[in-house]
Task: structure prediction
Amino acid sequence: MATYQATPVADIASIRDGLFAAYATGKTKDIAFRKEQLLQVAYMFQDNKQRFRDALAQDLARPPNETDFLEFVAIMEQSLKAYENVHKWAKPDSPAFSINTFPMRPRVYKEPKGVALIIGPFNYPLFCVFTPFIGAMAAGCAAAIKPSEMTPATAALVTELMPKYLDSRFYTVINGAVPETTALLDLQWDHIFFTGGGRVAKVVATAAAKYLTPTTLELGGKNPTIVDKDIDFDASARRILWGKTANAGQSCTAPDYIMVVGREAHDKLIAGFEKAYKTFYPNPDTQVDEMTHVVNAASFQRITGLLERTKGKIVLGGKTDASKNWISTTIVDGCSFDDALLESEVFGPVLSVVTVDSIEQAVAHVRKGDNPLGCYIFTRSQKNADYVRMNTTSGTFMVNETVIQAGIYGIPFGGIGPSGSGYSNGKYAFDTFTHLRGSLHLPGWMEKMMAFRYPPHTPKKLSQMKMLMRTIPYARPGSKPATPWGKLFASLAVVVGIVAAYRHKSK
Result:
């Protein structure tokens, strides 16, 4: 197993300068180079899958099937999709046709922002680092990644493998904790991508503001799960329980609390949890070896402290082992909105259940708090699903599922407000690290056509300028629709403009 070592603080500035110097060569702008490096990322994970499993088992006691599903599946998909599509993503765009501007040859070029800094979290130390990293590579950026020091075995393995698979002139790993991260943030970057908690995000954003550096923040929040009356309670309970069990609930998209509509639905849901729990853990004595542990003693103490303070009743789980930082998946029933478990994001395998009278009451509660990263409803009613979606704000929204949206290719993943800003995932990650550079290329013959803008300003020039200005072809709001004659005159005005433009061109 590779050994974790922090990068000397004294070396960080020179490492950063080396990345900027390498980027200045223009090599990363070459599409063939980008594709080569993207494919190498996929091979790095395919060739070393077992080593990564072992590292995450050492860091988080995570079972291999969770690592495969929660990390590898998405990374392989992201890297290969980027490899297959980057040549299309990077092609210049031509705006929609405009009679006034088409001779100017307007284009939008997709250019890399430059050198990116990507700061990763402990909970998904591969997925949450390499998804934005793949986007940065595809966009043509150079990048430094800073893995979490709380998953040292995984960080050490990434540090060992990256230079074996990728061009280390353009892509590097910097390890460390607060001193090293502070040194990184003291430097200027062209984009910073941070995944983590709100407290540290404010430090990152403040540091970025010093240089007006564009920043993406992937955070979290108290993700609500609303359970309707008429659903498949057994299937829904399995999906919700898995969302809280996977990675020991240490997911920014994990369901944080449940609002179930009505006492009858509540009883069916609890019965569904009991069935699912027995299916997941047929031998309770081995559960400690079959699920991920919380990351450290501080997290263990924080979560068990919430269990001590709650006024709800533990109906499933509740077992702990401080020597292993392990907390069993725990369902706490009979909670109220002022319970300790609903004060802030739990970020652990503890799920509270609140019974509400209606979906409207559940939505009203969601609207009182910060915008979460995920909002979930389990229902068979499209009307109810639409009501929740249209009356709440969250980074993502799912019906009859939890957690998995972060890894679904083709949709953006990101928060809003306190749950984050900006996007990752597929082309959205490419766009995050891309500067859209607008461009015009005017031919010489347009000089006469544009001469009206030059002083002295005369009535004739004003008349010529007015030909460029569109008139509104639509009825004023609240008035009668335009008559056919009005539409005809508007069409004639467009024709006159076209004829005038060609007359100027021919002179």
